[in-house]
Every structure is written in C-alpha cells, then in structure tokens.
C-alpha cells in the first residue's frame, strides 16, 4: 500500500527530511564518488596524466595480479589470518562475556571489565612494541619458559614462520576481547530475569542456565555480529603484520593491504594497487551475501 | 536521584572538557597568529621542505635558524620521514597531489619526476653563481633526466678546495677498541682473522665491566638497511661501493656479487659463527631502533654498518655514557677475503649520487626565491653558520684564523636538546665538504683535522696511534674513485617496476631478504644455499645485470665526450 505524500506530511517531517538529505549527500560524496577512482585499475595510470588522460588497457592489470605468485600467497595469508582472527576473537568475546556475567561480586566484575577493554584503546604500534619486547630472546615469555624448564634454548618467535599467525591471533584476542564483549554483556542484561527464575525452578544449574537461557538469549546478537564480521574477513589487518613482519617471515606475514601499499604506493603502480583493492571489495561483498543467505535459509536474524 | 546526579556529573565532565579543548585551541591559534605577524614584520618568507629520511625536527624558535632568516629573509620548515619508507611517503604525496616547496624524495625521486611534480631547474641555474659553481658542467649534465632537464641537485660529498676527510663515513667492518687493545693491536686483514679475534676476546672476556654479557657480532637486517648483511662480498673482493653490482674496471664488465665464491665463503663464515653463538641470534628480527639501543649499551663487539647509520645515534650515546673509556667506541678495519686483496672500503674525492637530491616542486609559488635561498646557503658566511655555528658560542678562532671548539662547545654540539634549540644546519640542503674560502678551515668541523683529532676519545686516539694512524681514513687507506661510472647504485636505486630489470631487482631484493637470514641460520649450509640460489635464479637476475651493463657503457661513453 502506498501512502500519499502531501505538503502537510512534508512539513511535519521537515527536520527528518533535512537530516536525510544531509546524510545522503554525505554518503554520496564520501562513499560513492571515490569509487570513480576504480577506473584506474583498467588504465595504464600515470599520475602525470590523471584518470582523464591515461590510456585504458582493459583487464591487463588483473591478469598480471593473478599470475603473480606472491599475490596468491598474499590472498592465502589474508584469508588464513582473517579466519583465525575472526574465530578466535569471536569465540573469546562470547566466552568472556558469559564468564563475566556469572561473576557475582559486582566490584570485581566492574574492575575486570574495565581492565579488559583498556587494550582496545592502545594503538597497534604500542601493542607490537610490547609484543616485540615480550617475545624477544630475552623477553618475559622466553624467561618464563626457560625458568620452568619447558624449553632449553631461547625461541626466536619472530624468526619462524609457524609462530606468526598465532602471534597475530593472540594479539588480536588480547586487544579486542574486552571491547567486543561489551555488546554481548549488554545483550545478556536485556534477557528477562523471569527466564532465569523459571530455569532454576525447573532445576537448571549454572551450566544449564548458560546453555538454555543465556546463549539462546544472545543468539540474534551473535548472528548479526558474525554476519558483519564475515564481510570483514579480508580486513585481516595491516598495521600488526606490517610492524611485526620481517624478511624471514614475509612469506606468511604479508596481507593484501601490505601488497597494495608495496606495489600501489611504493612502486607507484597505482593501477595494480587499485585492482587488488577492487578484488578485496568484491570478495568481501560475495562473502557477506553468502553468509546472509545462509542465515536467511536457516530462519535466523539477517542483515538484509 | 542517583541517575540525576550521574547525568549532572557527566554533563559537567563534558562541559569541562570542551572548555579545556577550547582554551587550548585558543592558545594554539594565538601563538600561530603571533608567529605570522612577526614574520610579516620582518618580511621573512616561509618555505616548507620534506626529506624522505628520518631526521630530527628543530624548535620553532631555533636561534641559528633565526639568524639565517635575518640574513637571507627566508625560513624553511623542515619535516622528515617517520615510520614509513621513502617510497611510501613519496607515493602518498603523489596520490595527494600537494607537495612541500622543497623535496628530497630519496629512493622515491624518480617517482616524483614521473609524476611531473618537479620544476626543471636548468633555465634558472645560470642566474645563481653559488649554485652554478656547485657542480662542473659534466656533473650538471649527469643529473639530466631522460627528457633532458635537470630536476634536482645532490647535496652531499661535494668537495671544495682540498679534501680533508677524516671520518670514514661509509661502510666497514667495525670493531670496539677494547678488543684490539686486549689483543695488543694486531694486524687484522681478513674476515677469518676478524672473527677469530672476536671469538678469542669473547672467550677471555665474556662480559663488560659491569657484568653485562657481550654480544660478539650483530647484523642489522631491518628493511632497506639490510645492506649490513648483503653487500659485504663486493668489499671483500676488494671493490668499492658500487652498491648493487661489482664493476670490473679493466674489462668494464658488470659482475653480480651475490653469486661469487667470495659471497659463498662470506655467508658460510657467518653460518659457522651463528652456529658457534658468535652472531647475535636476534640479528634478523631486530628493528633498527632495537639495534641502535643494543649498540648504545656498548655490548656489541663488532658489526658491519655505515658510519652515518650508527655514529650519530649509538656513537654519541656511547660517548655521553662514558663507555668510550671502557673501549666501547668503534674503529674500522681494512678487511678483505684474503690478505693479497687490496681493500677499497674508503674512496677519496666526492661522490655524486645522481639518483636523488634536492628538488623544487610544482607546488612552490616562488621558485626564484627558493633557489636564491639555496644560493645563499652555499655562501661561506652562512655555510659556516650552518655547520660551525656562531663564533664565540659554538666555536673559537685562534690567532692564525683556525677554528676550534672547546670541550664544552663539543659536548653541546652532540647534545640533542641544544641541537634542537640552537643549531640549524639545513642538513639536507646542498653543502660543501673540503676546505672553505679562507683556505684555512674545513667546511665541516668533522673534516678539520685538529678539531677532529681533539674530539676523539682517548681510547680511540691510543688505538689509532698503535696503528700509526691519525684518522679513521688512515685505518683503511684511501683510493681514487674507480671511474666515471661510479657509483652504480645511483642507477639501481631508481629502477622502477615498469621495466623487466626493475622487476628483477625488486624480486631479488625480496628473495635476499628472506633467504639470506635463512642461509646464515641453517643447520645445513650447503642445502640452504642451493635453495637460495634456486629462488634467486627464478627472479631473472640476468635482466637486471644486463640493464646495469648498458648503463655502465652509457656512463663511460658519456664521460668520454667530456674528455675530448
């Protein structure tokens, strides 16, 4: 059914319309206009000539991109780190929120919550600095492992490829768990206390209440956040890999973003940088649509 | 009630913070206005400059900068590279399309040229006598780009008058004087002798005086600074620093130093020393800052590096901590692969690196004013102000007109806070080495023989004396520049991935970054080396070598034109 729009409604909703217009213009300028830059990916782009005067070369840059072994490696690294990070931070945040919810001592709960989300406000340069110190040959981790006899010789964590992804995942978990847990804690507080009472009467213990009340209660939140995060898998990070990586581990440390920086900006091949960026966006959109479709099929919450 | 109190509190916090922000913003803008009117009164023009190297910014009211502004009417706000590579910084500037007035893009200079960001200077040069005299006709010609114009001038290692270089500003095997002193100042000429000496010293003295454990040998391997690991084979074979290749001066042929027998021997040696625990296990994962911190503690007995890469940071730190009394200062050693090879670690005369320099960008609204300023900076009076400082404050003049510094002035010159508030050398603008117009003094304090010698620590003086040397250069001996092509790195530095040679050069760098550390750390050297060679050859290094050969021939032919 269509509602008829007359002058009266417009007058009534004047404020709303003005705000709507502002946001639309904002979105157009900052989200859609820059997309014109995608033209670069199909050109032999030279900054001297600009987009308007560079020659078009079709898909040549994409062909080069996908015949480049190092780009394929970079996709693998990005996907692997993205998935590991997603699973680790996601699970940890939910577990942490539920555990925190079970703490009865209000003061202790507040203190733990505050401390746990503080790392979110540190920039990656500081976090990587701490990691570099803690994991160095004479750092606290090696000292600890040595003193308790787990290892006989210092491990140089940044010199071996197999440690790199776990280190990145750990750093992400450490930094973001507390912050991500906030939204689940909020969701938990909105669960009707009557449900818990009913569960107790039915003889549910703590585990039972978590399984049958808390988890189903925050399920919609979990699914919506999961959907949003799936679209972010390819944003596996830039700073942390860039700052922690070195020559020895470059085969596992470089992500698409680093590739774009290296070839697009440093080697000033803006076209190939843009092509890699387009690839990333397209894959992200596909991922999010698939995830959304699955959620829709299984009758759960969805984004669109 | 509680809620109300809380919201009241919150709103108070908000108000308080806005007020605080507001007031600080006010003071900021206030001081900005003041500066603007002030410079307006004196008619001082302000330019901006960006240099794609790490550097320290000086205070806004720097005293020498004000003095130079009074004399030239120009003040330049300099900014430096932070946390990026030169190419990234330049790439970002190009993408933005707005530039500072002056720029030295380092390795990114060619990108700036290709992006059309630089102003051609050739039409202007003739009107500025100091700039004109800065290079010979041949040197100016070598700075021309493909389109025939000159866009930048290199600022360094240009010698006026007599060459009085005392510092070995370049790469070498460095060793702490305490090691040499302990061994009775032996002759150390080969890599094997060098490591034997370090090993036996470390066995006899595993710690420093305060009990800190020594690090016998460390290797800096951070990003572009991995030359400390990779380019020693060219020196070990007795060739000078062409940087990316060896040039055989007899046959004028380019040789790849990555695959020579000497390269194998060198990395095999490093591998052995790594297994023995002599090479610092953190070598390949340390950052530049961590490396400098390590050196500053005086724990590191030896390493390969460029003097400028550690002396002004770690070297000054060692001095101010008094560790030079314990023999923790470094001296260079003339090391080659075997005793019959003559070393060329040091080259005399200036080196013109045509790959980068100071350029003026299209964003500069007053190109003539900018060039006039460069011209002024090269005048002797202002040049002295830049590098020696203010007479009576930073240096003294004796009855013969010779400049010297007192102990206090010397300490000041190395003090970071003093440097920021008082000294302004405009260090990335063109400058002279050698001797000044008065024919008595050097253009740089570090090139003034007496001043240089007096500034050395006693332990270093003693060490130099034991080898019959006066300066670091004497430790190595000096060599003439090998030929007109030198240095070849000025070509390879500017290769971009738009050519096959550039792609090969880029991939080679990537492979070396990954495999050289692996080779050094490997349990089985031969297998690791074979694996490295396989990856290396997959980069088509011949494309790169061929391009270098072509450039070598071009340079030789170019130089021949001027000899006629």
Your description of this structure?
The complex is a heterodimer of chains A (304) and B (564). Chain A has 304 residues and is mainly α. Chain A folds into two domains: 1-58, no CATH class; 62-297, Orthogonal Bundle (MetI-like fold), CATH 1.10.3720.10. Chain A is 70% helix and 1% strand. Chain A has helices at 7-12, 14-32, 50-53, 60-67, 69-102, 106-117, 124-134, 140-147, 161-189, 193-201, 206-230, 239-244, 250-253, 256-266, 270-297, and strands at residues 43-44, 55-56. Chain A has a two-stranded antiparallel sheet. Chain A is flat. The mean pLDDT of chain A is 90. Chain B is of the alpha/beta class. Chain B has three domains: 6-163 and 352-447, Periplasmic binding protein-like II (D-Maltodextrin-Binding Protein, domain 2, 3-Layer(aba) Sandwich), CATH 3.40.190; 171-350 and 456-476, Periplasmic binding protein-like II (D-Maltodextrin-Binding Protein, domain 2, 3-Layer(aba) Sandwich), CATH 3.40.190; 489-563, no CATH class. Chain B contains 25 helices and 15 strands. In chain B, strands 2-1-3-12-4 form a five-stranded mixed beta sheet. In chain B, strands 7-10-6-11 form a four-stranded mixed beta sheet, sandwiched between helices. Chain B has a two-stranded parallel ribbon with strand order 5-15. In chain B, α13 packs across α14 (307-320) and α23 crosses α25 (541-563). Mean pLDDT of chain B is 89; it is low at 12-41.
